[in-house]
Amino acid sequence: MEREPEISIRLFSDPQLLAPVRALMDTLAKSVGFGEKSRGLLTLALDEALANVIRHGYKERTDEMIWLNLWRLRDPVGIRIVLEDLGRSVDPAMIKGRELDDVRPGGLGVHIIRETMNESRWENRPGGGMRLTLTKLLSPEERQDSSTSQSENTRP
Amino acid sequence: MTHELLIAQTVTGDAIVLRPGGDIDMARAPSVRKAVAEVMRTRPQKLIIDLSSVSYMDSSGIATLVEALQHAMRNKMKFVLVGITPRVKSAFEISRLLGLFTSAPTLEDALRL
Which of A8, A15, A39, A57 could in theory staple to A53 by disulfide, Cβ–Cβ 3.0 to 4.6 A? Predict the structure, then answer.
């Protein structure tokens, strides 16, 4: 990563902390220019990623560490998220969303992440644990809306 | 710190209506699962989940509802979702599971089903 994250948070692997992280993500995404639906999906994807770390990486222990780093991207405009943990490592090739024809509770998180984000890349972290990089870019409509509102704001 | 999820319950005719509030995520889905399971043990003819006060739901919440639907189908209960908010609808749509459920725009509509 070429520059330092604009927001960097260390949080415990406690599901009670998901709500405040969602609020942060929603606010940041709004400031970047994401519309209501995209913000909802972006927030959902981050929530699912954190829940997967807590559930699978840390086996629901609530006192382990997760590092969340966020960047606003400028060209093209979007958001990059990097999540790191020290939990159980798995082969990234084995991380797959379940078949949606298989109707059963659970197993949806990876599917939601992949469907929502422009990029989702799991890696084994040097020294143990996993690193997940997520990128979401503004849609063409959101780019148009964003540039219109910027030009209106800069008018004398 | 506690975050109890308020779940209101009303009985209308042969239907029981459960109305959870707030966000249903990994932290809160277990409360909903417990409330739904308790109601299902009473074997109502119809269980309506009113989601109009739920502003956010993740895959834990969706999984809870899929599990409840499957239980209802096995036990020949009607299971209806009502008042799905836009963000919750998005989560269902991206999971491609909304079509599994019977849903209604309002509680009155759900009671008529």
Answer: A57
